[in-house]
# Entry
Amino acid sequence: MLKWLGWIVLVGGLWTAPARAEDGYDLWLRYRPLPTAQASAVAERATSVVRDEMDPTIELAAAELVRGITGLTGRAVAAGNVATGAIVIGTARSARIAALRLPLAGLGDEGFVVRSATVDGKPVTVVAANRPIGVLYGAFRLLRMAQTGGSIDNLSVVDRPKLGLRMLNHWDNLDRYVERGYAGRSLWDWQKLPGFSDPRYTDYARANASVGINGTVLNNVNASADILKPEFLGKIEKLAGMFRPWGIKVYVSARFSAPIEIGGLKTADPLDPQVAAWWKAKADEIYARIPDFGGFLVKANSEGQPGPGDYKRSHADGANMLARALKPHGGIVMWRAFVYANEKPEDRVRQAYSEFAPLDGKFADNVIVQVKNGPIDFQPREPFHPLFGAMPRTPLMMEVQITKEYMGFATHLVYLGTLWQEVLRSDTYRPRKGTTVADVLDTPVRPGALTGMAGVSNIGTDRNWSGSQFDQANWYAFGRLAWNPDGDAREIARDWAAMTWGQAAAEPIVAMMMRSHEAVVDYMMPLGLNHLFATGHHYGPGPWVDDLAREDWNPVYFHKADRNGIGFDRTPSGSNAAAQYAPVLARKFSDPKAVPENLLLWFHHVSWDRRMASGRTLWEELVAKYDRGVAEVTAMQAHWAAMEGKVDAGRFAEVNQFLAIQRQEAQWWRDACIAYFAEVSGRPIPAGVTPPPHPASYYKAIRTPWAPGNGK
Amino acid sequence: MLKWLGWIVLVGGLWTAPARAEDGYDLWLRYRPLPTAQASAVAERATSVVRDEMDPTIELAAAELVRGITGLTGRAVAAGNVATGAIVIGTARSARIAALRLPLAGLGDEGFVVRSATVDGKPVTVVAANRPIGVLYGAFRLLRMAQTGGSIDNLSVVDRPKLGLRMLNHWDNLDRYVERGYAGRSLWDWQKLPGFSDPRYTDYARANASVGINGTVLNNVNASADILKPEFLGKIEKLAGMFRPWGIKVYVSARFSAPIEIGGLKTADPLDPQVAAWWKAKADEIYARIPDFGGFLVKANSEGQPGPGDYKRSHADGANMLARALKPHGGIVMWRAFVYANEKPEDRVRQAYSEFAPLDGKFADNVIVQVKNGPIDFQPREPFHPLFGAMPRTPLMMEVQITKEYMGFATHLVYLGTLWQEVLRSDTYRPRKGTTVADVLDTPVRPGALTGMAGVSNIGTDRNWSGSQFDQANWYAFGRLAWNPDGDAREIARDWAAMTWGQAAAEPIVAMMMRSHEAVVDYMMPLGLNHLFATGHHYGPGPWVDDLAREDWNPVYFHKADRNGIGFDRTPSGSNAAAQYAPVLARKFSDPKAVPENLLLWFHHVSWDRRMASGRTLWEELVAKYDRGVAEVTAMQAHWAAMEGKVDAGRFAEVNQFLAIQRQEAQWWRDACIAYFAEVSGRPIPAGVTPPPHPASYYKAIRTPWAPGNGK
# Structure
């Protein structure tokens, strides 16, 4: 009978459900009705939308305001004339805007003013900028204020992005496979391009513009040269045309050996004049189709990719050759510093710094070096990358990974805003105390020099874009932090949650989000451990793995656990990677008493019996961390269960199920790692701790060959 | 200025567009409001939905009726009591239904009665069946009548499916790659199963149930044994549970060598007792989880797949061994007859018949042999497969390909209902004149013997399910023809169009659909030509290809064009494949004067100068056919352009763009084939015909390595 009741409840739901449940497609731009009082207040300040200029981007801004306000207030609003409560938008090319003498001078091409003002004698709200794209950004800002319950009375908002390049990197292959993608296939339907202009391309561009993202690298850094062929350029041209009014430039990952593979040359040596000529001709060909093409992203001499090193040339030689080809057209080169060479036995953590720091000042002015947030590879926690602050004459942009390759794929709820904030607020002590990574990023190395931030996209064809509802927050947070690296992760989470789930649900959701990153660190790799993943797909634990071709691909290389202790000695007695930081930091990191405990095993090999701040031994602390991680996920589940009825049923159920998966997998991580480290250390499970239900051999035998994101 | 006007019109559209445009997700179950008079008429006959039984499937039927009627009439309708105009649904377990003494006796488990009747003194409509699934099918039938403008007064519909197995075959790999898939990735999100019950699984099952499909093979016939591992069985169990109330059983493709690959045995010899025991234990394991598991589909000893032939055993040996394992649980084996062996130099067209016809009567009674509609492989046109009618003691089911591997992928508008009807209505002359393929399929070889039809699915994660709006029609038509192989392709098209595009748009859309298949035959492979495809992905023309490893993979093998003539001699002077048909047909096909011209080059090698019925030479006729194919697509474009405003803007635009792609690719086919055959034949382009703009070498040089569906 209970079973029957279940059926009735389940199926009964269908009788009243709307034809289309919320499924996450609308992202943070849902524009659902506001609470009544707020709706009225907004409606009074949004009686019509007025624009004088004919411009596609201003037109989009106007349409967005109409769509947003209509949705939020439930009242029809349209384009109209200046009246009380109008929203007047435009640039100084509009006489009405010009007459207001707004403080636009310092705002550049992308900044904006949103201000309550009087136009034609009527109280209005003005959204003004130097360029149409600023107007669009301002419109989205005004809508954000309305969506999150902020007042739109007496406004005086002046803002501009702190970084110039706010860039998504798609690791999308031309067959639509997304490397490290957990959200379906690549959005780019190359087969149907340029003939089919999928409306989703516009929805993608709109979502990006709403958070200020202004560039997209369409293809994987492990690139095929084919994307530079004429047939693909025609397809890219179509996408560029659809993205253009949203202020988004397209870039491509360029394979360094393309002159050989599709150019018929015998070499890709950057100092060979034929090679340089080939790239110049290719750049000319691209710009003939796409006058505002952004430029190239290059992964060279890393993980098997070709590069200038194949010809005994430096990274600067390679980057500058490409930069010269792009320069006449205003294009740029983003050159990745994620390199580790096969031939070098050096601690992998040291290699990017070793190769790049000496090249400081050697790059052309339209080159920017793209440095990952940490020195390994997007681990749950790493110290900030020592190159930040170490190349004062070279523009650096930071690369973060929005897709959660190393943090549980799509089903684990992990808000990355706090991780990125931790990095951005790290003090580099270069050139002096107080110079954070954010400062390094947003201070041009010379006037007009490039600045930027890149996020490896988590976007795919999944209906919810990102593979899960909560992974949308990471896309959103990336955009916000690229706009302002000093932004506050909690505030960003709050805005996202209010827009995505409704204001009433926002606070409890923010509470979950804010503890979620520390939870994944704890149940996967606490205390500075890293890279304990199963082989290839990085799904599930594999701390025992020791059979990979390269020493520095193996988890045992990274944790160095044995009977006596655990951790990688990166102090002067070990690899001395700590010395790549500013001296004060190098000393701090090298001192086991001074190093933060959450990075202890990153920098030190220590005894299992070492006494921790908590009073526990290291071994006990490690186990406690794993337990805490699992407990945190359990707590998130309870937290979410209480949201039932406060958010829509469809998205509620999805998150609920994903949290159950996360709980199960957190337990797997915890059990496997404790079982393994107990075996390696010879330590018993501490008193009061639930032993793993199986010996380490059980976890070692688990294979998940079909996990997504690696291979096909 | 014109450019500006374009912008205004374009962007202006956004101001009034509903938040969500139609995108095809709703398929033929859109339930949009009917014209007023029809809506009133339906509303009078659908005042409430009444059911007495507690059953999940009847609950779904009731919910569907409520959803459909509410949508179609705009009036809220709900579950309720018997009143004038009620819809009363159920089986004879309901006293009210039983009292009506409906003619349910001959309707089996899946048939239904939909009848106007009097219950409790009130005029009502009754949907009744022997089993709940019949009630669900009846509910969908009633809704179809309402959707298509049919009267729902004075009803007396009695129907049951003519085939028992109405089956989708998904060629989905476990990594979610779909072989020959052009509609995104596999729906089955194995990584998140069983934890995540994607609502789309239910939507999939509902759509299938609405057309009577009652089985689904989840994975590719080129199977991985991993799907038989416990972790996958847990995932399949979840899907089976979601599909069960919709009357859909799950099946899997079983890899014949699984006992070696995952069972640890040294052999997969079907006569080895250990092998049989392994499969028996595996079947027991599956049924312990899924009591209504359907069974196995097997591709054996074909295109490199393992099979009983590896051990010198017959197909019957292999199939029967598996059948014995499944038999105690009621499971079945579908054994594919699509075989062609590496070692045999025999005409590939002959091989399935040669191998299988001698096995007639040798298969266990829970085995059904699955035969493709034609003897090659889903070409635009083939004669029916000679096995139909040639195995009178063996259950045969027909396999058709819904996904358009050989007909332009997703962007070509090709309605396959007419192709399948052509095959189903073909006279096999076995045992006697008038015995059509449909008769062979729907006449059990003994009482209670298996019957069925399988369609290779065109379904994926694309929002519109099938890769294009019009490819939905092929999914729909497959279901309808599997329910009734004597169904009429035009009537099916009309129902689909009325439900999918609205009644007002239906007739012109049907007109396009009905000529679309002949168009693709003409612009790709007229007059019985076949397999002229570029290598691997089967995208675009490659009639010149002669470098593939197997002779019978090469287009030149199939067309045999030279200076003198073209075509494959399958008469007694050649491979004599014609002799595999009934004698009267063999004679007809072998006679160049009697063979239908549309199969001429399938059966005959003839001179370029042969005079055709039209009075043209064969060469001129071939060219004229290619031109006609292109002209037909041009006509479809014009036809569709006239639909603007008569269908929703979103789907209109998609179809419009796809037709432009189709036009361009039809031209490519036409130009490439004419250029090539002109070169081979040495014939000049006929007078009045536009010469291809390039020489054959130009078309030969075209490479499309990233075309989807083959490889990654």
Observations:
- DSSP finds 22 helices and 15 strands in chain A.
